[in-house]
Amino acid sequence: xxxxxxxxxxxxxxxxxxxxxxxxxxxxxxxxxxxxxxxxxxxxxxxxxxxxxxxxxxxxxxxxxxxxxxxxxxxxxxxxxxxxxxxxxxxxxxxxxxxxxxxxxxxxxxxxxxxxxxxxxxxxxxxxxxxxxxxxxxxxxxxxxxxxxxxxxxxxxxxxxxxxxxxxxxxxxxxxxxxxxxxxxxxxxxxxxxxxxxxxxxxxxxxxxxxxxxxxxxxxxxxxxxxxxxxxxxxxxxxxxxxxxxxxxxxxxxxxxxxxxxxxxxxxxxxxxxxxxxxxxxxxxxxxxxxxxxxxxxxxxxxxxxxxxxxxxxxxxxxxxxxxxxxxxxxxxxxxxxxxxxxxxxxxxxxxxxxxxxxxxxxxxxxxxxxxxxxxxxxxxxxxxxxxxxxxxxxx
Length: 396
Ligand SMILES: [Zn+2]
What we know:
Elements: E1 2-9, H1 13-40, H2 45-59, H3 65-81, E2 96-99, E3 103-106, E4 111-114, E5 121-126, E6 138-147, E7 152-160, E8 172-176, E9 181-185, E10 190-192, H4 194-213, H5 216-245, E11 251-255, H6 262-269, H7 279-292, E12 296-300, E13 320-321, E14 324-326, E15 333-335, H8 336-353, H9 355-358, H10 384-390
The structure holds zinc ion (ZN).
């Protein structure tokens, strides 16, 4: 299990100066490697290591070996990203990636030990309550971030713990995400978005007016408001995902929104009045909250979930009429979103039953159970016989 934490460092002005200088030298090293890679048309990390490591150490004598390597690797990645069409540059105080040895976090004493050009800095961090549970986790990679506006340093740390993941056993909950309701669950739990949409509508209207004005103060207000709206969305997503994760279900099935760009479709449907909900954030929050409880999230193929009868498994476009689902074959009648969530639950069930197979616990800890994507289970592939077995529990 890997988590990313953002720690706020408590530093003296002098220490901040040291870290800023470290960032500047890092940028120098980065630029050096990027220029060389661009001129020689090379971007392999190992290639550059052999070719210019010593040269870089001489060019930037103040910077330690760990950060030279990190700067070189970052330059290689940047070269790859721009397909070597130019020599990538970075701003002097952009975020710097530290290898784990160069930035260690001690959760027991709430301290970090971080490399700088003026020697190691031992500094306390602001230890929020929720950070305490990460005691004993191993730090993997850290990124040092400088916030120019607040003049604060933050350390974003990836931490890992080595608890073997047990195969998840238990009931599956299907969750349908839509615009009229943020989420509808197959256990008849509705997350109505009337309150949310009212708030967001207010923001959208404000935004329109401010954009039309276009003055400098209007732009400033816009920026302020966008932050407020984003925090509102995040808070709602935390609230909803927490409620869902704490239900008695062990597996949560969601539609794989990556496959069809559903968000764009939703935008068009509402003529762009509302930007679509931050579904990926909801998914991310649910995923980590579930993992902490030993539960899992599976993604299922989203094709046809809204046209599929959840009683007999008949698929017909005509069954769906607005917010109602009325099966043309068997006459089954249900709220359309609820029907879809039950289909998702069922697809998730077969997905979850395959989880242990995907997961060689002896072979390594890199396998992420919850990341398994369903490709194989298309509507056509599922046979009628499976329907008959688990149908009763879902019929109201
Ligand atoms: Zn039907």
